[in-house]
Amino acid sequence: QVQLVESGGGLAQAGGSLRLSCSASGRDFSSYAVGWFRQAPGKEGEIVAAISWSGGSTYYPDSAKGRFTISRDGAKNTVYLQMDSLKPGDTAVYYCAAKRGLGIGTNRYEYDYWGQGTQVTVSS
Question: Is 34 helix (H, G, I), strand (E, B) or coil?
Answer without folding.
Answer: strand
